[in-house]
Amino acid sequence: MHPRQISKWRRHNARYNKRSAALIDRLEPIQMKKVMLTVFKHNHGAYQFFREALQFEIDDTSPSMSGCCVDDCTYEILSRQTKHAEALGHSHGGGGHCGGCCH
């Protein structure tokens, strides 16, 4: 890839990261507590983007957290609390299951 293309790609990526984070923050007025998504394990770019750039975590409902079919599962379920949930102090601390309060 040409250096100009790399620079253009990085600028585009930075704008996309900011837009994605802003979109998640806009969920606050509708009182959504958590955003969840599914990402394929083989899609390293998407996995890294959501985990590092947008600070999503592996959700308690992800197959890798249950211990069954860890090697057979081709995806992870990721989640991130919204600012609304953080403002309410809504946390499950230490990965405890929410019992449906976030869904």
TrEMBL record:
Q: Where in the cell is it found?
A: Cytoplasm; Nucleus
Record's InterPro entries? NAA40
A molecular function (GO) held by this record is: protein N-terminal-serine acetyltransferase activity
Keywords, sorted A to Z = Acyltransferase, Cytoplasm, Nucleus, Transferase
On the tree of life, the source organism's domain of life is: Eukaryota
Kindly list the GO CC terms recorded for this protein.
Answer: cytoplasm; nucleus
| PANTHER family (UniProt xref) | N-ALPHA-ACETYLTRANSFERASE 40 (PTHR20531:SF1)
Q: What is this protein called?
A: Uncharacterized protein
